[in-house]
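new request in #modeling-help
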Amino acid sequence: MYQYDAHDQALVDQRVSEFRDQVSRRLSGALTEDQFKPLRLMNGLYLQLHAYMLRVAIPYGTLSSHQMRVLAHIARRYDRGYGHFTTRQNIQYNWIKLADAPDILADLAAEQMHAIQTSGNCIRNVTSDPWAGVAADEIEDPRIAAEILRQWSTFHPEFSFLPRKFKIAITGAPTDRAAVKVHDIGLRMHRDERGAVGYEVIVGGGLGRTPIIGKTLRPFLPKEHLLSYLEAIMRVYNTHGRRDNMYKARIKILVEALGIDEFRRQVEAEWEPLRDGALRLPPETYAAITERFAPPLYEQRTGSVATLVRDPETDPALARWVQANVAPHKVPGYGIVNISLKGTGQIPGDATASQMELVAKMADLYSLGEIRVTHEQNLVLPHVRLSDLPALWRTLDAGDLATPNVGLISDIIACPGLDYCSLANARSIPLAQALSERFSDMTRAQAIGPLHINISGCINACAHHHVGHIGVLGVDRKGEELYQITLGGRSDEAAALGRIVGPAVPAHQAIEMIAGFVDTYLAIRHPGELFIDTVERLGTAPFKETLHAAA
Amino acid sequence: MARKLRADAPRIITANRLIDGVVVYRAADGSWTTRLNKARVVTNAPDLDAMMPGCMADVEACQVVSLDVVEVLHDPKAGPRPLGQRETIRAAGPTIVLPVDRPIPAARPSA
């Protein structure tokens, strides 16, 4: 895992003392709220409905067990004993006091963490594949580039006051688990015809008020040009992105307005004088960062996830969990364990301090001390020996962390919604809980197969509802909470936006609609066909018929 | 919220406490209370205007932020009740059962 060097640590420590001074000046009245708000947002601190919310960065979703224990400590000491893992691989605390924020940041800094650039109009936490470094289908570990981007973008003086926030995602595998096509910049690693590794650069994707699938800006960018090329993109955006209307300020609007060809022309013109300058990344620089992500020393082992599942000696409940939650590892005899934070009726993404500590302990015992956070609001133990799975499973189960539903219908992605969020129009969590109860039969869930439900409480789309196989958007119509349903969205390499089916309806009807869609799918699917593939093959028409039949 | 209010609608003044963000309401005695039923309800513009300087002074004095005037349902006996889901949740907290940090029992032994 990446460890801070003296420079990283000094940077973060200085920011803590700077923010401590700013909070003190705010509380004394030396700073007004208008002056203070941008400063607190630069440190991830929002004012929500009931309290302050602190968003802590988890760079590219990678955590050590020590860091997870600090997250648990913060939940217990400064919050109400729990935290919420987000769709950007971060963690949020819901009940923070302004006066405690500097101490929290100091506790985070002591274990190489911070809340820098988790808010505000800057380059946010770079997200990546939660299976980075261990996925069987990976070309190279994408966290190396993500770390280079973190170093480049942190406190970048030119990009600290962008027209709007800016999100970058990177995948090192052909199967896109980082949703790169719905980010301001998406980077997809691949090889050119000579076998050299580089990136497809995708730009102008995004969800929110104006959902757009990103467009290819450059099909292949050699690794050495990563920073200079992204700097050129940022400069064009920073110069021409709209600052007069926050709803039209994201890069996607600029790309649409100029057209991808004109946008490309401007980026290339900006890039030309930059490309062989100080931002060029020589192989030594890559090598130095690569060393910081050196794979652990694995043991020589054999066996695969598939053989374990098929083995008649395996406990059926364990086999079910392994089948749903354990993915193939690049090293024989190991598995990638996905820990569901979506137990039946639970709040998606929430974990108590004790659960975080249990995961930290399991990481130490069974995963070489390493943990990942997924944009689907789950956790991952990336390096588990297959022979350790039974013991790990039993311990996780005792902590309500062994629900065998990863990627299935009850693995629901939901934002905090109107229960916490000052931007929300409707609640997300109660609907997610009700759907989780409705689809709590794991045998049936596995028969339904992979199906993502994403529920956002407002148009800002924190739960990425546009790219849910079934997307749900909460709206407020004259004081009534209603839910607008979409079908056919996906965030993987074949990213697509869902299409609206039917009018917005109250929560109880939304549940019935979704149950009806599932029944329809089961009735019309080809053998082995996934939900999303049935929707793509037949469109929304057969599902709309379900609605008419129910009406 | 820049919502247009009816001139005679019952209204209260609400804010968040600066130091911890807790939801507070302006009481009749000019203090801030966390209890909605202690909030002063006004039904005309002059009364509302008269409350404002004191509230603004508390904003200046770093007591509260996010000052807002919101409409309520008003029963003179029971006191004000929130109108709409957002204000209901601000007044009463999340509608969900919050996670409880319980110690985790040891794993069940293997079969």
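bot summary: Chain A touches chain B through 48 residues (CB under 8 Å).
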